[in-house]
Design a protein that fits this description.
With 508 residues, the chain is an alpha/beta fold. It contains 17 helices and 17 strands. A hairpin with a 3-residue loop joins strand 8 and strand 9. Helix 6 packs antiparallel against helix 7 and helix 9 packs antiparallel against helix 11. The N terminus is likely disordered.
């Protein structure tokens, strides 16, 4: 666009002070363009005619929420680097729970080895740890933990206590600790059983052989669950966890029956099993594994393609019968091939209807195909399960931080309006990718939401920008949904400065 010879630099009126004006040179003059994502009708107004001063054009600019955030000072992180990293990176709540479970088991093992132990007692402790590991991943148990921990009264309890209770989503540390402990106990049982067998003890060859096979299965499951391997090949991890886990459960049944038979003495096998604690634990374990699959449903969905990168699936929750209505902060597991792969997506209740939706964005081959060819039916398994976002209800004022499709889990919490909340949403071509309906709904829920288009403004310093918004909004806590590196960076950046922050921990 050429600049007319008679062009005068435009005068800008400060939005908060109509008397304050300033001018800019022609080189940085950018006329109003309604097609440009960096302009909006609410923030820019082109005035035709003669303004109070002698210039041909006047533009009123609204200050953007992130203006000047890079120049603002951000406080130093608390504590020294070593102590800070140990607290927030090495010994997270997840790791501490893992450590408590493992160390407790090791203390019991040492005591038993010192005072003497037999294979029957080792079998009981191994099954008890398997029981704990499985129950910590059971949908209803997880929801019960979230219900209890998030019921802390906002006004009666101090922030530090609510912060501690909000770490309930780290309970996967108990699952991992118990699973590793069970494997160690089975290793000791296999060794002790082999030793007793060699000495002509009570244990049978069948029991020892089954124990060694179970041990190999559990070791395989743990190897594939190592974070580096799990993230590299998550589908393989899921299949190994599922099929090896089911096989191991069947083998544990055989082991419990065989071991009980070995130590029943003069009693009948039936009487011994009825009075066997491992047998009753196995009934509960099996029931908890079957229950989600007993509630497997193939339900109709209404797909709305938002763009080449996202689709929104609408489901009527009444088709599930006795399923509860999904709440904000929960997720559902869906699949097109139930035996091979499952994917978890946040539930987005649709106000005033019996529907909820799932926002699916492109993050791999499965989601890419789903967006390209939206299904008319899809499988749901189990019941909606509470996730990290559910902890937002424990705080008086919350800043939600989303990058890209992270808006999917956050949107229902924003729509719920349970407490004053502010949204920071960054991404590329947000309107084009997620559609006007979702963006308008977000703006309606939070008219002051900060929607930052990285294609226009570049990648922001998320720690600095988040900190600025925390201070501007006086937020009590931050909840972020993003990719793993950025989530950890923002959570660490806030926590190390004394601001409660929560994000996914990628433990499953």
């Amino acid at each position: 666009m050429s600049t007319p010879a008679s062009w005068n630099p435009p005068v800008f009126y400060h939005p908060s002070n109509s008397e304050e004006t300033f001018t800019i040179p022609p080189l940085v003059y950018r006329p109003y363009n309604p097609e440009s994502p960096s302009w909006s009708k609410t923030s820019v107004d082109t005035i035709v005619g003669t303004p109070p001063v002698k210039s041909e054009t006047s533009i009123v600019l609204e200050k953007l929420p992130w203006d000047g955030y890079l120049e603002e000072d951000i406080p130093d992180k608390a504590q020294g680097k070593v102590m800070r990293d140990l607290r927030h990176l090495v010994f997270t709540i997840y790791d501490r729970l893992f450590g408590v479970v493992l160390i407790t088991n090791m203390a019991i093992l040492i005591a038993l080895l010192v005072y003497g132990v037999n294979s029957q007692r080792l079998g009981l402790i191994a099954v008890a740890n398997i029981f704990v590991a499985i129950m910590m991943r059971q949908d209803y148990v997880v929801n019960a933990f979230f219900f209890v921990f998030t019921s802390v009264p906002l006004r009666e309890w101090p922030l530090w206590f609510r912060l501690l209770m909000a770490r309930v989503y780290h309970l996967g540390g108990i699952h991992s600790g118990a699973a590793v402990s069970a494997t160690l106990w089975l290793g000791v049982l296999a060794g002790q059983g082999t030793r007793e067998l060699a000495r002509g003890g009570e244990i049978s060859v069948a029991t020892v052989e089954i124990t060694w096979i179970i041990l190999m299965f559990l070791v395989g499951i743990i190897v594939f669950a190592v974070p580096a391997l799990r993230s590299k090949s998550h589908d393989t991890f899921e299949r190994v966890h599922r099929f090896m886990g089911w096989t191991a459960t069947a083998l544990v049944w055989a082991q419990v029956i065989s071991l009980t038979n070995d130590w029943k003495g003069d009693a009948s096998l039936g009487y011994a099993l009825v009075h066997s604690a491992p047998m009753w634990l196995m009934f509960i374990i099996t029931g908890s594994l079957i229950l989600p699959w007993a509630r497997l449903r193939k339900v109709p969905v209404r797909a709305v393609v938002l763009s080449d990168h996202a689709v929104r699936l609408f489901v009527n929750y009444k088709v599930f019968g006795f399923h509860p209505r999904p709440v904000p902060g929960s997720f559902s597991r869906v699949s097109l091939d139930p035996l091979n792969e499952w994917h978890a997506f946040a539930n987005v209740p649709v106000p005033g209807t019996d529907e909820f939706s799932l926002v699916v964005s492109q993050a791999g081959d499965w989601t890419k195909e789903l967006i390209r060819n939206p299904p008319k039916e899809i499988y749901f398994r189990g019941t909606p399960v509470a996730g990290v976002l559910r902890v937002n209800i424990m705080f008086r004022r919350v800043l939600f931080v989303a990058t890209g499709s992270g808006i999917g889990p956050i949107a229902p919490c924003l729509f719920e309006k349970r407490q004053p909340a502010r949204l920071l949403w960054t991404g590329a071509n947000i309107l084009k990718t997620f559609g006007a309906d979702l963006v308008d709904a977000v703006k309606e829920a939070d008219p002051d939401a900060c929607i930052y288009d990285t294609r226009v403004h570049g990648r922001p310093d998320m720690v600095k920008l988040t900190y600025k918004m925390v201070k501007d909004f006086d937020a009590e806590a931050v909840v972020i949904i993003s990719n793993e590196p950025l989530t950890k960076k923002v959570v660490y950046g806030m926590m190390s400065r004394g601001i409660p922050a929560f994000g996914a921990i990628w433990d499953s």
